[in-house]
């Protein structure tokens, strides 16, 4: 079976910036083992898959080691592929996913706005592992699917050098560190300690479903500019409306090709 594959840099205007995602347009769903093996072979943070239905697309996301319930940058990348390669007449697309209904809208300036469910974080005691892993003094900790840690300054976020192995065993997909920004409203970095070799995620849309409700409350504003301070860097325009988070960013194509797989 030949499968179209696209690699897209998401939440950036610049090639080799933002977060790269592999996107596969499937005629129908393959078995989960094959989907996971493709993600392992791609060896990117996420591989996204979508299947066209009558009036929407089904979407799923796989890390190289497991399926996840929500991924922002791979959804932005999938929307870019649909708008530019699949249904070029569309300016809005609806996805059904494990996190419910998600939407993506093509803006006049070429950016794409994602409509995601908000996930307001709940404050918890700071885990001991956080003190062990980070060479900064954490202020507060919050939990949802991910663990979110607040710090006192953008400089602390920019310069932190964590020992991610110390975070292994915590019951969270990722660990987010965040602070009020200097140019942006807030900044963040996101780390995944679950792979065999832990890593930093360049730009994490799903993390902003926690970050945006938190910072909207702290800063008393519903429209925010966010910067993720990884080496590749990512820029997001964010908006909170009731229980939804809207994330706007750009996408840049890197690769178009074809996979050959034999599904079970």
Automatic annotation (TrEMBL):
The keyword Iron-sulfur does not apply. GO terms for cellular component: cytoplasm. InterPro entries: Phenazine_PhzF-like. The active site is at 46. It comes from the Bacteria. SUPFAM superfamilies: Diaminopimelate epimerase-like. GO terms for molecular function: isomerase activity. Keywords: Isomerase. Belongs to the PhzF family. This is Phenazine biosynthesis protein PhzF family. It comes from Aquimarina spongiae.
């Amino acid at each position: 079976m030949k499968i179209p594959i696209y690699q897209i840099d998401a939440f950036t205007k610049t090639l080799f910036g933002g977060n790269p995602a592999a996107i596969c347009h499937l005629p129908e769903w393959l078995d989960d083992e094959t989907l996971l093996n493709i993600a392992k072979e791609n060896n990117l943070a996420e591989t996204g898959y979508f299947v066209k239905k009558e009036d929407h697309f089904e979407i799923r996301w796989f890390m190289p080691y497991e399926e996840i319930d929500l991924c922002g940058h791979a959804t932005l990348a999938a929307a870019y592929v649909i708008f530019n390669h699949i249904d070029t007449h569309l300016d809005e697309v609806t996805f059904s996913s494990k996190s419910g209904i998600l939407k993506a809208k093509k803006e006049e300036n070429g950016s794409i706005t994602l409509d995601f469910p908000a996930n307001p974080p709940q404050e918890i005691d700071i885990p001991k592992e956080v003190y062990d892993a980070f060479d900064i003094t954490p202020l507060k900790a919050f939990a949802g699917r991910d663990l979110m840690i607040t710090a006192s300054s953008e400089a602390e976020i920019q310069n932190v050098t964590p020992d991610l192995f110390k975070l292994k065993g915590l019951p969270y997909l990722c660990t987010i560190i965040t602070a009020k920004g200097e140019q942006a409203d807030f900044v963040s970095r996101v780390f995944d300690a679950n792979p065999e070799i832990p890593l930093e995620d360049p730009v994490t849309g799903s993390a902003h479903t926690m970050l945006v409700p938190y910072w909207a409350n702290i800063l008393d504003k519903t429209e925010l500019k966010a910067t993720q301070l990884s080496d590749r860097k990512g820029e997001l325009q964010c908006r909170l409306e009731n229980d939804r988070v809207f994330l706007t960013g750009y996408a840049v194509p890197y690769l178009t090709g074809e996979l050959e797989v034999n599904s079970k």
